[in-house]
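User: I'll paste a sequence; please echo it back and then give the predicted structure.

Assistant: Echoing your sequence first, then the prediction.
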Amino acid sequence: MANLTGFKRDNTSAYIEKHPDANIQYGVDWTDYLNSGDSVSTATITIQSISGDSNPLEFPTDAATDVTISGAVVNIRLSGGTLDNVYTVDVKITTSDGDTDSRRFRIVITEKTL
């Protein structure tokens, strides 16, 4: 995907490192996957749950508020996460042309320092 600011890539997939206290928005740009003139109409975000997780990765408010769409970009605000856990976030979209697609990325919860 294009323009994944802050994302890294390894041999598995794209991921981002997040501090457990961070409440931050991530943008997933679908431009490279859409036909010319097409845009994202709806997005459904699924965050992997981990059994017994005391501080799960979650939407700070709710999906209706914390997921926004701007053209081909889906913005997802996430908070929480337990240190050293790795969560999978699944982004499923429907476009204005009626196409559907899905991509996944990981959030790695780590202590971040300057």
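Residues 63-66 form the longest helix (4 residues). The chain has one helix and eight strands.
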